[in-house]
Amino acid sequence: MLDLDYSWLADPAYQSWLVVGVINTLKLAAISSIAATLIGMLGALALTLRIAWLDALIELFVEVFRNTPPLLQMLFAYFTLSTLGLQVTDPDTGLSMPLLSAFACAAISLSLFGGALAIEAFRSGIETMPRAIIEAGQALGYSRWARFWRIEAPIATRISLPALTNILSNLFKTTSQASVITVPELMYYAGQIYNDNFRTMEVMILVLVIYVTLVSILTYLMARLERWMAFPGYGKAAS
Amino acid sequence: MMTAQLSYDAKKKSVLFLLAAAVVVWIIVDAATGGDEHWARVGVRLPLLLTGSGDGWPVTGGFILNVLLSIASMAVATALGTIMGIATLAQRAVIRLPAFLVMNFLRNSPWLVLLFAMLYIIPYEIRVFGMVIPFPPFMKAVIGLALPTAANFSEVIRGAVQSIHSGQWEAARSLGYSTRQIYMHVILPQAFRRMIPGWMNLYALLMIATALATVTGIQDVLTILNTSLAMESERALVYFYLTVLFMFFAYCYPIAVFARRLERAVKGDNI
């Protein structure tokens, strides 16, 4: 039924497209993952201050980004930031061109999307921390900040890690949508290849396998990190 | 402590209310200073964006097609996910391991890539016993979106079944129930309650993902946004984007809030 022909893979042009695509996907994923984690930590940190107006602003941010399609967010970001946004004049050609490339727009939009999810993850990590630990810290005479940095933050980070793994793998998968705004990542080059050789099914299967492999490696590494960071005798790793 | 808690929430709510009011004021001010002609364009196109036809009837696409797509996909995903979830809980490794493999493959693949792959892997029609079953793009989109959703739903089922205290198993076993009876009469009725929030969250996620179906070429809200709006001015497009973003938000946010409320209610009954 399926007669798959992968002889086109021998072509160096296709090989280099695939390699460049994977590298750009990894770059986009790395940048947006780091930014999303930072946004998540800062957001959750801001929530612990319990300032009502800040809390409301963060909630609005989280809900808007969680409840709208990331594809639409990306298109909107690309459109507003690149087409309508800041323009610079190219010194060589004298033409006006957008300051932010498609890649930058995708990175910004994915960072915000991932950041909104990460805020939720870290917030629930802080919330589900056992009260007894905080009370023990208070009883030992820790100051508010020492308690946060030495007790609450390390434990909350570890509680939030499984949720963060989910978010980062979700974010990695979402980077494929950047192809829609012509970011030259793996999915974009997949389109280039099958438009060239018409081996659509073969290309899509290969790309699917590459993505699954990359995401599996990511989740494996995060599981390793989880085990490495685990406190002896505390949490899931203890059992 | 209790009153402080309440006043904090009340304060937060009032700030959120103020923010909503600020958005309304901004829209009015913007409309008064030239935005109204753009909003008028959005108003003219609104029936098209919602139903796919300029007069609002018949429904041929648009946001309503996204809703229909999400419902159809969710139905398929629920059936598939239940089978997959039960298979991953099977005692026999012959059933369990392949189910795990398929589940993890689907969970680790990007929705967009999976949708694209389904678009090309599924033939245009299948012949079974002389009957020709056509596969229009809509059906392909349903299947392409249902597969990752099913994998996620099977994970929800597994989590819910495993969250039932092991004492329940031991009690049922000591009463002489068979494994099948334990599932049917003891475990699943309880697990079912805990699945519902996860199922609803998954539906909201699926609804958001229906935006991807634009790659299959069906006339969903994004396709219409991209094609028929090429003739609008650049400024007006911002208003169109905001309108479509708001459609998704208005549909998904209430579901997310309801799911969270249920989740909190279910958390209490830890037997």
From TrEMBL, chain A:
It comes from the Bacteria. Signal peptide: none annotated. One of its GO terms (cellular component) is ATP-binding cassette (ABC) transporter complex. One of its GO terms (biological process) is amino acid transport. It is found in: Cell inner membrane; Cell membrane. Gene3D superfamilies: MetI-like. One of its GO terms (molecular function) is transmembrane transporter activity. Residues 22-219 form the ABC transmembrane type-1 domain. The chain crosses the membrane at residues 28-49, 70-88, 100-122, 203-223. Its main location: membrane. Keywords: Amino-acid transport, Cell membrane, Membrane, Transmembrane, Transmembrane helix, Transport. Pfam families: BPD_transp_1. It is a multi-pass membrane protein. Part of the binding-protein-dependent transport system for glutamine; probably responsible for the translocation of the substrate across the membrane. Belongs to the binding-protein-dependent transport system permease family. HisMQ subfamily. NCBIfam families: HEQRo_perm_3TM (TIGR01726). This is Polar amino acid transport system permease protein.
Automatic annotation (TrEMBL), chain B:
InterPro entries: AA_ABC_transptr_permease_3TM, ArtM/GltK/GlnP/TcyL/YhdX-like, MetI-like, MetI-like_sf. Its main location: membrane. Keywords: Amino-acid transport, Cell membrane, Membrane, Transmembrane, Transmembrane helix, Transport. GO terms for biological process: amino acid transport. Pfam families: BPD_transp_1 (PF00528). One of its GO terms (cellular component) is ATP-binding cassette (ABC) transporter complex. It is found in: Cell inner membrane; Cell membrane. The chain crosses the membrane at residues 63-87, 99-122, 128-148, 200-218, 238-259. Belongs to the binding-protein-dependent transport system permease family. HisMQ subfamily. This is Polar amino acid transport system permease protein.
